[in-house]
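dumping this here so i dont lose it
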């Protein structure tokens, strides 16, 4: 009843490469993905720019392949994501649509994508990163909120629920591990939506941590307050990055600290009844997004480039 997941490196984006991608071409990668996890999350392949590259064209190839892989291997899938400010196709961001057209575009997208995988997705990140660090809605950056107002968030949940009544529908964000302005904003919004009967079922924190910033000590308390609202909770994109020394190799001390962060996060989730899903954002440093997005940082996952298990791996294993 507990799900240990990994993001699936289906290629593209930070990997800056065309097919063949790790998921299809790296045998060792595939084998570990199959044997060590019972949940998978497409890292990019269900995002708008991949799955809906042109207004009248969807590309389900990789998303289908990942969902089929999961089914064959008895794994559940976390769908990611439907309403986000990032990784949207140009036709959408640069298009000149009326409000009515945009609403129709979002509804059709959700009905099509969620509908296609209906019954095969355990949890959907319906709305991703809708608040900024101060707890304000990203009403400039997020095309949907900007053009259609905050009410569109509830609609997205309603449409997703219509398209797949069995999927658990989540809010997902980073820097909401602990109790802070941003997680407070989710807490309030969630309560409002639940009062209105909107089908919101979960709150998840991504868990992109860094050993420089200290472990977010109120993680368990935060998960628990959402749990008490009756929501499922999850950690969905855990990695723990670090500033790499000149040599490019992390020190033993850094790796131990990292292992401690993974352990603390997993323990917090295990303590909270409705937290039964813990996903790491890739399991090998080889394909991690971290070095590409955070200059000078890396070694964020639980295995090295050559799939050697790091202290974090063993710590997770012994915590379970
Ligand atoms: C990242 C992917 O790992 C990269 O491949 C891509 O280039 C950018 O996005 N929060 C999220 C994820 O919700 O979708 C992001 O994934 C990491 C931060």
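and the seq i came up w/
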């Amino acid at each position: 009843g507990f799900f240990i997941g990994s993001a699936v490196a289906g290629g593209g984006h930070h990997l800056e490469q065309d097919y063949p991608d790790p998921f299809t071409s790296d045998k060792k990668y595939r084998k570990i993905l199959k044997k060590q996890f019972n949940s998978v999350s497409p890292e990019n392949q269900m995002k708008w720019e991949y799955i809906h590259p042109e207004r009248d064209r969807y590309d389900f190839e990789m998303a289908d392949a990942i969902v089929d892989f999961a089914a064959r291997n008895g794994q559940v899938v976390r769908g990611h994501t439907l309403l986000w400010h990032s990784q949207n196709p140009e036709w959408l961001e640069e298009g000149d649509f009326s409000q009515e057209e945009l609403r129709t575009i979002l509804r059709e997208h959700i009905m099509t994508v969620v509908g296609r995988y209906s019954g095969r997705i355990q949890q959907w990140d319906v709305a991703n990163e809708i608040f900024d660090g101060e707890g304000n809605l990203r009403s400039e950056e997020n095309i949907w909120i900007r053009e259609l107002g905050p009410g569109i968030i509830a609609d997205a949940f309603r449409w997703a629920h219509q398209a797949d009544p069995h999927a658990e529908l989540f809010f997902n964000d980073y820097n909401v591990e602990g109790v802070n302005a941003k997680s407070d904003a989710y807490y309030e919004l969630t309560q409002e939506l639940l009062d209105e009967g909107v089908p919101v079922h979960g709150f998840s924190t991504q868990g992109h941590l860094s050993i420089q910033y200290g472990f977010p000590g109120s993680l368990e308390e935060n998960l628990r307050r959402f749990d008490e609202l009756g929501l499922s909770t999850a950690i969905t994109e855990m990695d723990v990055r670090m500033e790499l020394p000149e040599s490019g190799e992390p020190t033993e001390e850094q790796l131990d600290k990292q292992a401690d962060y993974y352990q603390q996060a997993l323990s917090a989730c295990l303590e909270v009844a409705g937290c039964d899903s813990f996903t790491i954002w890739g399991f090998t440093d080889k394909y991690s997004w971290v070095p590409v997005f955070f200059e000078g940082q890396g070694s964020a996952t639980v295995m090295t480039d050559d799939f050697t298990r790091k202290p974090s791996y063993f710590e997770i294993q012994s915590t379970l």
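The chain has one domain: 3-319.
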